[in-house]
């Protein structure tokens, strides 16, 4: 049993280090699994999900569920989670599927306006704007 505990701790440290290196970026559990496969590190999907769930509970990782058909995205937030909650919006490119983290004061002003003028309290962590990213717009104009 002690060996199993060390095994899980090693995986957690490896996963944590990887997520920390991607601070501000979103990844799926499949992305994580693929990354470790490419490095030759054997870590199962259930282990990845188990550790992600614990990190979510600990406030180290945010989970984003954009819609019913997409996989959940995870983002390392560390101790900065409370700072980001007030102004964190997302943009999803409808062409390539990229999820972009938006920290924009203007969107925060819209959030404040909706609350003050319309009585609507927007959960910015779950607010997603859809459209085309710069790369997809540039490639479609060629």
TrEMBL record:
One of its GO terms (biological process) is regulation of secondary metabolite biosynthetic process. Zn(2+) binds at residues 93, 96, 133, 136. Binds 1 Mn(2+) or Fe(2+) ion per subunit. The keyword Hydrolase does not apply. It comes from the Bacteria. Its cofactor is Mn(2+); Fe(2+); Zn(2+). Keywords: DNA-binding, Iron, Metal-binding, Repressor, Transcription, Transcription regulation, Zinc. Pfam families: FUR. InterPro entries: FUR, Fur_C, WH-like_DNA-bd_sf, WH_DNA-bd_sf. Coiled coil: none annotated. Fe cation binds at residue 83. SUPFAM superfamilies: Winged helix' DNA-binding domain. GO terms for molecular function: DNA-binding transcription factor activity; transcription cis-regulatory region binding; zinc ion binding. Belongs to the Fur family. This is Transcriptional regulator, Fur family. It comes from Oxalobacter formigenes OXCC13.
